[in-house]
Write a structure and sequence with these properties.
Chain lengths: 644, 354
């Protein structure tokens, strides 16, 4: 998802609350747990009977008005015992989890941050304890320290602390690589401040979620131990002991097992649900969004149009390879509003031509590319406009048809080929799969063709590379493979989404040369997305400049560079430090930043930052108007003499 | 001052060829950083990877050294060594003529007051769970002993104002700011200790084009007003040219060329520098098409896949001017007319390829 689609201006806490509210089950679980603790605290005042007061005249009774949950074999009220048991179980669980956290988290933090020998020693000990079931460890400690409930829970806490050590250490290792930790070190802060003040707050959410889950585990162990007769003494009412007693009367009075069993099960379930819910809500950048299945109206009409134009497409490919008209992409925003992140984009791409699509991040250029391929990520959708490939309408094609076109008629090279190549498949599989699927080649033909393609992109030693995996390639080589795959079926349109931005400049030059060679050979049209004006200057015939979701200027490259006709293009070109510009120490700047989509103005989107702005700019949407010689600009003042 | 330091300063001054040059604030001599190779079970132990090999340079007080090169060149490792974030295996680092490569404890803390950093990625360099007021104020408390409160808030607001931010951002989390604003916060944080050297590790590469120039101007203004010294790491040559007084070019752990910026751009002495210059696109269609044609001729004449000997010039397999001697011995550092130095056997022959 692009920057633009992320909710901005909402504080982190508010977002967590929002996410938590989306999860009804977790909220119900939290409510139940709260209720348990309230009962645990005020238990002695609300329980109808004492926990140990029995009435031998009424033993093993079913639920009645006097005893809501019946009585046990000594005539004690079950409900009262459950209530007192809540007090004991909740306290025991809290005790054990607190001990586990207090022991485990600092050790994990230090082991993860300091590393080296300390880390190895800690992990060795933790692995040893981890290899034993926690209940065994607890039993061992109990054997030494005795069986009061507090020692039992301390033992369980100790056994569980290994889980916190592992989790904390793992997250600390990851967090340690973040630059803000380096910044803290350069700031001269000591180790303890860095781990407690800088790292801990960032891993705390996951620890909290983990703690909730561990509560459930500890409750079960407490119940198990009490069931076995260790832990809570006979005088202490505990859920586990209640369950244990019911065993003796299983045949005569099976109902006895139900209240205590249900209490245990519900509490454990609630903690687990809350833990899962917290995990989702507190996770960084989790996207909790439902896909909107919306399609624009009038599908059938355009469908027919699309089919009808098939016959003409052969003639048309010689002229317009790709035509985008009035393309709009929307995402659901806050309060059920729709946010438009691509507004009214129109592009024409002729065969053999390279069109540069330039813009800053959040300008919508990548989204335009994805929409062209029918790949708008959920929950976004194309809300209006048409995309025609060789005269065939794509926005109304079913997914299965689109899939057949992608990779064959039109393909894409991404910025980062490592992530766009499947790490678990060999280069051969990734190259031959589209060849076999789209062109129906058999495996030998496909392999031969794959070798040709690798030769075409000048990958050294192609025979050997075919059997390798993506991680064995360098960034430049991975990009060559990505390009080979995109060219596999000789598409008529190639979309290149910043294919060289992650590469070194010398490698970038080689990839640009390859693209030019391939275009000369196959005559495909290239839509080249970039923010680098130097590449536009080298590679492109025409350029379209995007700002805040709109195309603000299009035209032939030489003309746009020499005489930009939109204030944004002009200002942007002026800010570029040139290789040949002698170092005047101050560069002209564009004030402000690209606003997020929900803040775009109704009129000209560039209005708040424009040096030439007049009140008229902010009144109505500004249309793209022609200003001669294949040039269009979206500016109210485009026609003013002397301004340009 | 002992004899070796005196010799070094003489060399440093020589290498910039200025008689007017202010004394160096930072000098790095024969810096060597190695990363231990992963030891695999049942494998012979492998030699460590040299990330930085005998790198020497110095930055005059109040000036900017642009450190350029591609990924894997070792630029950031040099920065981390200077920031004492990574262990060094050889060489010395001098600040104001004082050897700082083995400081610890209170002395290291004092050193941290003088040398600060601005990282490339403002999305990861600011603690996501701290508000801006704390991020900037933390170092004021640590180094200047001002406890959190109204007085510290005033100081933070003053710093934020210096980097062009209003005090309202103090209660915000980094998440709520744009990339450019975050980078301003990172600069304010660096300024909080009143440092004399700021290591800028690609401070603009993660930012949009229109924001980059804002940050560059800010850094230049701060240098002019506070007399800051910068080590400016970048892979963008145009940016380097704009901000640097001197340039140092690194390739695979070696410093292959250094010198005054204008000289390096006008008369590059190392073929790699030439290749970098030829590969950097300029925003001028007619000129860039010409340059691209020249670039293609160069890159097609070399084969980077040929393995090279450990002792050879690291650039030998990509160099269009490669000679037999290049594959056998590492060239020594020699002086260049017009200022600076170069490590290239071909330089003596006077050959160039453009």
């Amino acid at each position: 998802m692009t920057d633009a689609a992320k909710p901005r201006g909402v504080s982190g806490q508010a977002r967590v609350w929002w996410r938590l509210r989306q999860q009804r089950l977790a909220l119900i679980a939290a409510g139940y747990i709260l209720l348990l603790y309230v009962v645990a605290i005020i238990g002695p005042w609300i329980a109808p009977y004492g926990p140990m007061t029995g009435d031998l005249r009424s033993t093993l009774q079913g639920p009645s008005i006097a005893h809501w949950l019946g009585t046990d074999h000594l005539g004690r009220d079950i409900l009262s015992q459950i209530i007192y048991g809540t007090r004991l179980s909740m306290w025991a669980a809290l005790e054990a989890v607190l001990i586990a956290i207090i022991l485990g988290v600092p050790i994990g933090l230090l082991a993860g941050y300091v590393g080296g020998k300390l880390d190895r020693a800690v992990m060795w000990a933790v692995d040893l304890i981890f290899a034993l079931p926690p209940i065994m460890v607890a039993l061992g400690i109990i054997a030494v320290l005795g069986t009061t409930l507090d020692t039992v829970m301390a033992a369980v806490g100790f056994a569980f602390s290994t889980r916190f050590v592992r989790l904390t250490r793992g997250m600390t290792l990851t967090e340690r690589e973040e630059l803000y930790v380096d910044g803290a070190r350069v700031g001269g802060l000591d180790v303890w401040t860095i781990v407690s003040h800088h790292i801990l707050p960032n891993i705390a959410p996951a620890l909290i979620a983990q703690a909730a889950l561990q509560f459930g585990g500890v409750l079960l162990i407490e119940a198990t131990l009490s069931f076995l007769g260790i832990g809570a003494s006979l005088e202490q009412p505990s859920w586990g002991r209640l369950l244990s007693q019911s065993r003796d009367y299983m045949d005569a009075y099976p109902f006895l097992a139900i209240p205590s069993g249900a209490a245990i099960m519900l509490a454990v379930l609630a903690f687990n649900l809350l833990g899962d819910g917290l995990h989702t809500a507190l996770g960084r950048d989790t996207i909790v969004a439902k896909r909107k299945t919306k399609r624009r109206k009038g599908d059938t009409e355009t469908q027919r149009h699309g089919d009808g134009s098939n016959a003409r497409s052969l003639i048309k490919t010689n002229m317009t390879a790709l035509a985008i008209q009035g393309l709009q992409v929307r995402f659901p925003g806050a309060q059920n509003r729709e946010i438009e992140i691509v507004c009214d984009v129109s592009l024409d791409l002729k065969s053999g031509e390279t069109l540069g699509l330039v813009g800053e991040s959040g300008s919508g250029k990548s989204m335009t590319a994805l929409a062209t391929l029918g790949l708008v990520p959920a929950p976004g959708w194309i809300s209006n406009g048409s995309v025609q490939l060789g005269g065939r309408e794509l926005t109304t094609l079913p997914d299965s048809e689109l899939r057949r076109l992608r990779g064959k008629e039109m393909s894409i090279v991404f910025q980062d080929s490592f992530t766009s190549l499947n790490p678990s498949l060999t280069i051969e599989t990734q190259l031959t799969d589209p060849l076999r699927a789209h062109l129906g080649l058999n495996s030998r033909q496909a392999r031969e063709r794959a070798l040709e393609l690798l030769a075409l992109v000048q990958l050294p030693d192609p025979q050997r590379r075919l059997n390798e995996y993506p991680h064995q390639l360098s960034g430049g080589m991975a990009q060559r493979v990505g390009l080979a795959r995109a060219l596999a079926c000789q598409p008529s349109v190639l979309i290149a989404d910043e294919p060289t931005s992650a590469l070194d400049v010398t490698v970038q030059g080689q990839i640009l040369d390859l693209l030019k060679d391939a275009q000369r050979k196959f005559g495909m049209a290239i839509l080249f997305i970039t923010h680098d004006w130097g590449i536009v200057a080298e590679l492109c015939d025409r350029v379209a400049v995007m700002y805040a979701g709109e195309i603000v200027e299009t035209g032939k490259v030489d003309g746009v560079f020499a005489h930009p006709r939109h204030p944004y293009t002009r200002a942007l070109l002026a800010t570029l430090p040139g290789l040949d510009r002698t170092g005047t120490r101050s560069v002209p700047v564009i004030p402000g930043v690209v606003p997020p989509p929900q803040d775009w103005h109704k009129g000209c989107h560039f209005y708040p930052r424009c040096a030439l702005a007049i009140p008229a700019c902010n009144r109505n949407p500004v249309p793209l108007t022609s200003v001669g010689d294949d040039r269009q600009t979206r500016c109210v003042r485009a026609g003013e003499e002397g301004l340009w | 001052m002992n004899a070796s330091t005196a010799m070094w300063d003489k060399f440093a001054n020589l290498s910039y060829g200025y008689s007017m040059t202010p004394p160096p604030f930072l000098s790095v001599r024969d810096l060597r950083v190695e990363f231990a190779a992963r030891q695999l079970l049942f494998h012979r132990s492998r030699p460590p990877t040299r990330a930085v090999n005998n790198v020497s340079f110095s930055i005059p007080t109040g000036q900017t050294l642009g450190l350029v090169g591609e990924s894997g060149a070792g630029k950031s490792t040099v920065a981390r060594a200077i920031l004492r974030l990574t262990q060094i295996q050889g060489g010395q680092i001098f600040i104001d003529g004082r050897n700082v490569s083995s400081l610890s404890g209170a002395q290291l803390t004092e050193y941290r007051r003088q040398v600060q950093v601005v990282f490339q990625d403002p999305y990861s360099s600011l603690n996501p769970s701290h508000v801006i007021g704390e991020i900037v104020g933390e170092l004021i408390t640590r180094h200047r002993g001002v406890r959190p409160g109204a007085a510290r808030d005033e100081m933070v607001a003053g710093l934020l104002q210096r980097v062009g931010l209003g005090r309202f951002v103090m209660d915000r989390l980094p998440d709520e700011l744009s990339g450019g604003q975050r980078q301003r916060v990172a600069i304010a944080r660096a300024l909080a200790v009143e440092p004399r050297l700021i290591v800028c590790d690609e401070p603009t590469s993660a930012l949009d084009v229109s924001i980059q120039s804002q940050i560059i101007n800010l850094l230049a203004d701060l240098q002019a007003s506070a007399g800051l010294t910068y080590l400016f790491i970048t892979h963008n040559l145009a940016m380097a040219r704009h901000i640097s007084h001197n340039l140092a070019v690194m390739y695979l752990g070696y410093l292959v060329e250094s010198g005054p910026t204008e000289r390096v751009f006008a008369h590059p002495a190392h073929p790699y520098t030439e290749m970098l210059l030829a590969s950097s696109p300029v925003p001028d269609p007619a000129r860039q098409r010409e340059r691209a044609a020249a670039r293609s001729r160069i890159s097609r004449s070399t084969n980077p896949e040929i393995a090279i000997a450990v002792t050879s010039c690291p650039f030998a397999n990509r160099c269009p001017l490669v000679m037999d001697v290049c594959r056998k011995t590492m060239p020594a550092q020699t002086e260049v007319s017009g200022g600076g130095s170069v490590r290239c056997h071909a330089h003596a022959t006077g050959l160039t390829f453009t």
